Each structure stands twice: as structure tokens, then as C-alpha cells.
Amino acid sequence: MCGTCGCGKTTSHDRQGHDHHHHHQHDHAEANRAAARPRQWVELEAAVLAKNDSLAQRNREWLDRRGLTAFNFVSSPGSGKTTLLERLARELARRRQLYVVQGDQATNRDAERVRAAGAKAVQINTGTGCHLDAEMVAGALDELDPPAGSLVAIENVGNLVCPALFDLGEHARVALMSVPEGADKPLKYPYMFRSASLVVLNKLDLLPYVDFDPAEFRAALAAVHPQVECLQLSATRGDGVDALTRWLEARSP
Ligand SMILES: Nc1nc2c(ncn2[C@@H]2O[C@H](COP(=O)(O)OP(=O)(O)O)[C@@H](O)[C@H]2O)c(=O)[nH]1
Ligand SMILES: [Mg+2]
Fold first, then answer.
1. pTM over 0.85
2. What CATH number should be reported for the domain whose range is 47-250?
3. 103 pocket-lining for ligand 1 (C-beta < 6 Å)
């Protein structure tokens, strides 16, 4: 179970559609338990995050000793993280080797996709877990063994909530969002967008077909993280990807 967000708990919505009466009672019981344990809950959260933070710091030092910069790619499922990493692997190929720590609940599909594009990859399956943590990434980095001069990317589990809280030892966090998701997402998931070093708006090619107002998106992002840089691109068509490779390489030794 995730001690921070509690998403490993059996929550009331697990019962939705099965037993509405029971569901209602369960909500009350849940609320009563929550009222009875706030302090322990907060202490557990602090302990889980403190342990993760110290392991993340170790990862960062490990990467620094090797002269490597790591980027943590976060987004909701389907925003285009893997598609973008496939493209980056191809575009960087002549200059740098891309090493990818892939995180998903299940399957090796994304690791296989980026390998086919020329990257080296290790897949982590989190099972019921909703995010990668620093300990998982430490194991994957050992296995990947990226040499100096390569570029290290982490594809986090698709989720705009819990990955915001877990430092993996990355040097920069790249939050992706895509046009079909709606312009208001920064307002609804402020922790994620606030923690981003760079925001990428993907699927720009879909702009003519989707009701998405770029000005509304810029305003939403500015409301939660006024200084953050935002790049717009299409991972499938490739336009705008140059600016991202420049951004990543400018931060890589
Ligand atoms: N139209 C369009 N589709 C895209 C773009 N980037 C990704 N996709 C599609 O979005 C879907 C999810 O992409 P994927 O890379 O698996 O997303 P992830 O879950 O964030 O890794 C796939 O069908 C991709 O082909 C894009 O720039 N434009
Ligand atoms: Mg993916």
C-alpha cells in the first residue's frame, strides 16, 4: 500500500455499482476511522516521504558521481510519454545513448517500445503501486549502468497525483500534458504542475479537432506555477521536439 496517498486501501469507490447501501455505510466508517487517526496518518506520511527523500538524494549523488543528469517524465496515462521517449531515442541517437527506467503497473510494453527505438531500458512493474519510488529507481539504475555522457530518463507510472510527492533523485521533472486532456488540468493537479521543472504540451496536431483553448491552458499553468517553461510539440509528427532535445541536452553534462 502507498503510505502517502493511501491508494492501496480498499476505498469506498471499489464497491461502487455493487452495493450502494453498503457503500454508503462504508463511507461513514471510513470517515470515522479517518477522524480517529489523523496524527498517525500524518506521521506515517512524513516517515514514508522522509525515507524516500534520503534514498532519492543517494540516487542523485550516484548520478552526479557518474556525471549524469536524470529526467523524471510524469503525466496521466496516454499523454505520450513513451511516444516522446521513442522519438528522443531516435533523435539523440547520433550524439547520446538514451537510458530509460520504465515504470508501469504491469507489462514490459513500454520498455520494449523504447528498446525498439534504440534506447536501453529496464522495466519496473509496481503492481498495485501508483508511482515509482527512489528505492525502485536505485535498483533499476544499478541494472542499467548508464555511462557518462548518456541521457537518463525515467518514465513514471501514469498518474498526476502520487508521483508528485516522490523524489526519485532526478535533476529535473518534465510534466507532460496533452491537448485532449483539457486546459484546466494544471488547476486540478497543482502539486504535479508546481513540482515540474518543465511542462510539455503534447499532441499539438490534435488542436484543430479538440475543444482546447491554449490561452486558458497558459492561464491555468501560470496560476499554479508562474515561472515554469512550457514547450508545445507533437511527439508523433515531431514538430517542437527539437526545442525539447535542446532543453534536455543543455542540462546534461
Ligand atoms: N495525435 C497524437 N497522438 C499521440 C501523440 N503522442 C502520443 N500519441 C498517441 O497517444 C497514445 C498514448 O501514447 P503513449 O506514448 O503510450 O502514452 P503514455 O501512456 O504517456 O506513455 C498512443 O496511441 C500514441 O500514439 C501526438 O503527439 N499526437
Ligand atoms: Mg508509457
1. yes
2. 3.40.50.300
3. no
What's the gap in Å between 85 CA and the centre of ligand 2?
Answer: 9
- Is residue 194 within 8 A of residue 219, CB to CB? The reply is no
CA of 35 to the centre of ligand 2 (A): 37
Backbone angles phi, psi at 214, to 5 degrees: -55, -35
Ligand 1 pocket, 205 CB below 6 A?
yes
Contact 70, 169 (CB under 8 A): yes
Which residue(s) pair with 101 in the sheet? Answer: 122, 154
User: Residue-wise pLDDT tens for the chain (253 aa)?
Assistant: 455 565 544 333 333 334 444 445 555 655 565 566 678 888 888 999 999 999 999 999 999 999 999 999 999 999 999 999 999 999 999 899 999 999 999 999 999 999 999 999 999 999 999 999 999 999 999 999 999 999 999 999 999 999 999 999 999 999 999 999 999 999 999 999 999 999 999 999 999 999 999 999 999 999 999 999 999 999 999 999 999 999 999 999 8
- Residue 158 Cβ inside 6 Å of ligand 1? The answer reads yes
Q: Where are the domains of the chain?
A: 47-250
